[in-house]
Amino acid sequence: MKKKTVMSLLAVMSASMMLMSAGAFAAETEGVTEAATEISTEAESESESEAEELEDGVYSAEFDTDSGMFHANEACDGKGTLTVKDGKMTFHVSLASKNILNLFVGTAEDAQKDGAKLLEPTTDTVTYKDGATEEVYGFDIPVEEVGKEFDLALIGTKGKWYDHKVSIKNPEKLDEAESESESETATEVESETTK
User: Fold this and answer.
1) How many CA within 13 A on the CB side of residue 15?
2) Angle at the Cα of 74 (from 143 to 183), degrees rounded to 5?
3) Using CA atoms, how far apart are residues 136 and 148, in angstroms rounded to an integer?
């Protein structure tokens, strides 16, 4: 009888220890999950605050796309100009050629609907490292948030719309002289567009 009682007692103690271990593991896992959620939330709020913290001015920023065929001109090192004014952001990018005729902030399907507001190209002159120049199309793209991927559809010379994902990243404020130079370039581009 004593042997059965000892065995039962050992079984109960063993089960208790297992439950305690499981409880400790669950608490530890919950702590890790909470920490991961907190880190994720902090990263999101930092990203949001980055967009909110951009003061009015002109910035150089990266144009990140999901396509090797759709990108900033090589003379621009993958970058364009982000202008922030009264809390609104517009990104100007010079593309590789004149093969992309229009852009649309949204999906290709929505771009083909009546009333869709298509982005018209500007004619930009880019200068390559060897000194050669070329006229290419550029676009002024409205940006809601820096660092956040968004849909940007395009139509090229073949007349077909394509869906792409893009983001504007790593803005660096240009100094006053660079900003004035960018403004002069934008004015030249605008006058070429209106011709």
Assistant:
1) 6
2) 50
3) 26
